[in-house]
Design a protein that fits this description.
By secondary structure, the protein is an alpha+beta fold. The chain is built from three helices and six strands. The chain has one domain.
Length: 115
Amino acid sequence: MGFLNTLRAEHLPGEGRWRLLSPLVYITRKGDQIIIPAGYVTDLYTTPRWLWSVFPRDGDGLRAPVLHDYLVTNGPPKYPRAAADRIFREALEELGRGWLPRWTMWAGVRVGGWF
């Protein structure tokens, strides 16, 4: 199914963080509904500036990183880190990301989770 709506967020000045203005809803392939509430604060995703042309930090593609942030920081207990990372990769595919960017971003969150 994928995302049911678009990302609406406002930048928090001076913090490099964003606040959701409305809930973001994702339906997993297993049929689970994940609702990220309005007011949730995220950094979108941490990517070195030199990779922004490959992994832009704007547009609807940001929904997958916000979903991942939420699952890792506030998600239901049934989504341990490995499940959150898998759902992130699934969401990237639902958003039409190609194989290489999808797997590169997934590998980045898997490795980043160890630090």
